[in-house]
Write a structure and sequence with these properties.
The chain has 127 residues and is mainly beta. The chain has one helix and eight strands; from the N terminus they run βββββββαβ. It has a single domain (4-122), classed as Jelly Rolls. 3% of the residues lie in helices and 36% in strands.
């Protein structure tokens, strides 16, 4: 299953030159996948993987770096500059311009397949 994200919570197109973005999964609410899940990012209009200095092109359940927040939730950051050393492990670098991200869920659970699982929105914040 491949849900895509092109807009933030306000319906605005994702643009790393204008805003920083994050998606937070509540404790115990990460995508339930038999195999794995991963976010991959693409620039627009080219639709290429986003070149970046840390050479990270996807982030997900197989990422050794992924850390939980103190409350057990997990936040992934999509932005052109580092969110800070303490959050960098959960950062998927965005281009300094428009982009979209796809969440790939391999072996999705029944609650995902039947629509009972609700993905959180991507939230924007000023740079």
């Amino acid at each position: 299953m491949y849900p895509g994200f092109q807009k933030d919570q306000n319906g605005e197109i994702l643009d790393g030159s204008k805003m920083n973005y994050r998606i937070t999964f509540k404790k115990g609410k990460l995508p339930n996948a038999k195999y794995f899940w991963t976010f991959t990012m693409y620039d627009l209009p080219n639709r290429f993987l986003v070149k970046n200095t840390i050479e990270r092109y996807s982030i997900g359940s197989s990422s050794n770096s992924l850390k939980q927040n103190r409350d057990g939730s997990t936040t992934i950051y999509f932005q052109s500059k580092s969110p800070g050393k303490e959050k960098e492990s959960n950062w998927l670098p965005s281009p300094n311009g428009p982009f979209y991200t796809i969440l790939r869920i391999y072996g999705p659970s029944d609650d995902i397949l039947n629509g009972n699982y609700q993905l959180p929105q991507i939230i924007s914040s000023p740079k």
